[in-house]
Amino acid sequence: MSAAKGRPAKGTGKRLNIGAVRSSFAPWNDPAATPLVRFQGVTKRFGDQTAVNDVSLDIYPGEFFALLGPSGCGKTTLMRMLAGFETPNAGTITLAGQDLAGIPPHQRPVNMMFQSYALFPHLTVEQNIAFGLKQEGLPKAEIAARVVEMLELVKLRPFARRKPDQLSGGQKQRVALARAVARKPQMLLLDEPLAALDKKLREETQFELMDLQVELGMTFLIVTHDQEEAMVMADRIAVMREGEIAQIGRPEEVYETPANRYVAEFLGDVNLFEARVSAIEHPMARLTAAGAPDGFYVLDDDCPPAGTAVNLAVRPEKMRISLEPPPAGTHNVLSGEIWDIGYTGDWTNYIVELPGEKLIRVARANASRIVERPIGWDDKVFVTFADDAGVVLTS
Amino acid sequence: MRRGPSPFNLVSLTVGFAFLYLPILLLVVWSFNASKLVTVWGGFSTKWYGTLFHNDQLMAAAWVTLRVGLISATLATILGTLAAVALTRHGRFRGRTLFSGMSYAPLVMPEVIMGLSLLLLFVALKIDRGFLTVTLAHTTLTMAYVAVVVQSRLATFDKALEEAAQDLGCTPTRAFWQITLPNIFPAILAGWMLAFTLSLDDLVIASFTSGPGATTLPMRIYSQVRLGVSPEINAVCTLLIGIVAVGVICWSIGTKWRARAVPAQ
Predict the structure, then answer these.
(1) pLDDT of the residue at A182
(2) Which residues contact A77 (CB under 8 A, 6 or more apart)?
(3) Quick one: which of A249, A250, A173 has its CA closest to A204?
(4) CB of A92 within 8 A of CB of A56?
(5) Is B195 contained in some domain?
(6) Which residues in chain B touch residue A121, judged by CB atoms under 8 angstroms apart?
(7) Is residue B219 part of a domain?
(8) How high is the pLDDT of residue A384?
(9) Rounded (10°) angle between helices B111-124 and B131-155
(10) Which DSSP symbol is given to B44?
């Protein structure tokens, strides 16, 4: 099932339901699908530093793919190798079946949106957008028509004659975007495209980028250190760590079933319990852990045999907190004292101290405005979580 | 906080400016002296400016200086810009330190030593001293200044701009011509003007490397002054000051106008 993301019908006035398109889009599960970009065993060293280490990765046509990781994890280097600004020391990169080795940046059918936007300061908005089209030697009338089309796409028609210095941050970002897609590249590379925008604008732009990607039917590769940005926009995320890929998957896969501790801790908050597998009772497993007198009772997915030391990862929002003891027979019960409370309006984060001075974080949505007996500092509380809330991690 | 300058500041400002500009002002005033005697005021006159244009020796020297200045400044600008690009854009290459040291050496090298060494070189190569040798010597001297000015601009120039141009289909060479050059052009122009001014007023290196028929204006002025200061010399110096002043004023108006055309963020 390789459902391509459809283009929206123009002029219908109806917004495309991206969610519906998205959920049926999974070419990476289809053995017959051919990837647009293939990284195979790619390694890049700068002096004695290895920036990218033996990375293999497929990106499919129409995909919105995110490279996510902290700064210095090699994600930008990986993108720059695809654009042609860095040469890999080992491995191959192919685009639509063509080996990119030796092809200089100006001959690659990809375009990049730079983190600094890199707008040409001496050219106007329209000259900036026309720049790439002029290099192709297109007829003047065609260039002019395409520039107008691009200006309308990013809603900057009235600003055509301005210089980059006379634009706001959000407008500059849109010019950079229009300039990069004007040549209709096979793939658009976005290097931290929203990093320079303020929070509100960033959220709006995330949705605009998603709409734009579907509208253009273009493959997007985005580099970001912001997990929320990657989760909202991308079809798949590659979480990177020190030049290697820690996990690739849909946003909900990497969040809900992290492959290892690194991914679990990098994406959102997580409570990790050092535990030992005591028995496998398929489909469940029992774990023993310090601080949990009755042990844990969790799903045995990917659970190693009894006796193995593991980490149990449980997200704060999947834990329930209460002042009343849970009914007898409830699994996964922890008790402790409130150590700290962080109120953010929509959520309240409780830091609970378990016996043995272990601190865990429990998040609760503030669903009602008035609570009869709010949980306060130094209260004795009970924390429980469902049998399927935890993930057993071996690495 | 007190507004305005304190009496102490006012005095030091006046004394400072007087120290700098009083001699120049005197020179300008004496150039309008009707008397031939430099120390006696004989009334206002512009006659020395008239005779100046009939002094063939001075006019010939001025013409030499102008040509040397234009050619050497242009050559120095090209070479200095290339050196600056090589030093900022090509990261680490073999002999980079040596190259940068050698390009900047003329900045700190005493002019006498530079003049002497160039003289020795020209003699060794059996090149007749004259217009060519002065021009070459001035190119060597001023190239370093151009390189410094252009390099400081390139250092703050976002390299992503060149990459973006390449990404949009430019070869590296085209990217340089279409994107880098227009953006660093003010610095290149400033470098050219600096080189031209340096060449215009250089006496030491010109004395070493010049030959018959290629006497520059500073050399001519210096040799005439040794025979006594004539009002004509005052007039020619006043003209030189005028040219430099007009250049500086044009430049600052130009930069202000540019700054206004591009409002600050």
Answers:
(1) 93
(2) A44, A51, A52, A86
(3) A173
(4) no
(5) yes
(6) 161, 183, 262
(7) yes
(8) 92
(9) 130
(10) B
Quick one: which of A72, A31, A19 has its CA closest to A252? A19
- Per the CB < 8 A criterion, the answer to whether B25 and B183 are in contact is no
CB contact under 8 A, A179 and B168: yes
Q: How many CB atoms are closer than 10 A to CB A118?
A: 26
Q: Quick check: helix, strand or coil at residue A307?
A: coil
Q: Which residues of B touch A166 (CB under 8 A)?
A: 262-263
Boundaries of domain holding B41: 36-261
Structure tokens at A318: 């999947």
Question: B108 lies in a domain?
Answer: yes
- DSSP state, residue A326: P
Give the separation between CA B234 and CA B32, rounded to whole angstroms: 9
pLDDT per 10-residue tile (average), chain A, 395 residues: 43 51 77 90 91 93 94 92 93 92 92 93 94 91 94 91 92 94 93 88 89 90 92 93 93 92 92 90 86 84 85 93 88 91 91 89 89 83 91 88
Show residues of chain A in contact with B161, CB under 8 Å.
Answer: 118, 120-121
For all residues of chain A together, what is the average pLDDT? 88
Choose among B255, B254, B216, B246: nearest CA to B72.
Answer: B216
Q: Please give the Cα distance from A198 to A187 (Å, whole number).
A: 26
For A218, the token pair is 């273009």
Work out the pLDDT band at B259, boundaries 50, 70, 90.
low
In 3D space, the residue among A363, A360, A357 whose CA is nearest the CA of residue A313 turns out to be A360
pLDDT tens digits for B167-178? 999 998 999 999
Nearest by CB to residue B164, choosing from A114, A163, A165, is A114
For residue A309, the surrounding DSSP H or E stretch is: strand A309-314
> For position B136, which CATH number holds?
1.10.3720.10
Residue A183 is nearest to which of B158, B168, B179, comparing CB atoms? B168
Distance CA A77, CA A94 (A): 16
Restricting to B residues 141-180, those with a Cβ less than 8 Å away from any Cβ of A are 158, 160-161, 163-172, 174, 179
Cis peptide before A283 (omega within 30 of 0): yes
- Residue A267's closest CA among A241, A235, A243? A241
What count of other Cβ atoms lies within 10 Å of the Cβ of residue B55? 19
Q: Is residue B135 part of a domain?
A: yes
Instruction: Dihedral sign for Cα A246, A250, A254, A257, please.
Output: negative
The Cα–Cα gap between A242 and A263 comes to 13
DSSP A376: -
Name the one residue in this structure whose structure tokens are 């005028």.
Answer: B242
Domains of chain A: 18-109+185-263 (3.40.50.300), 269-393 (2.40.50.140)
| Number of domains into which chain B is organized | 1
Which residues of chain A does B182 touch, with a Cβ-Cβ cutoff of 8 Å? 122
Q: Phi first, then psi: what are they for A139, rounded to 5°?
A: -60, 150
Distance CA A99, CA A79 (A): 16
Q: Look at residues A49, A37, A116, A52 and name the one whose alpha carbon lies nearest to residue A82.
A: A37
Task: Describe the crossing of helices B181-201 and B131-155 by its angle, rounded to 10 degrees.
Answer: 140
Within 8 A of B183 by CB-CB distance, chain A residues are 120-122
Handedness of CA A244, A246, A250, A251 (dihedral sign): negative
With an 8 Å Cβ cutoff, is A47 touching chain B? Answer: no
CA pair distance A192, A381, nearest whole angstrom: 42
Distance from CA of B182 to the nearest CA of A (A): 7
Residue to mutate among B157, B159, B167, with most A CBs inside 10 A, is B167
With CB atoms and an 8 Å threshold, state whether B165 touches A114.
Answer: no
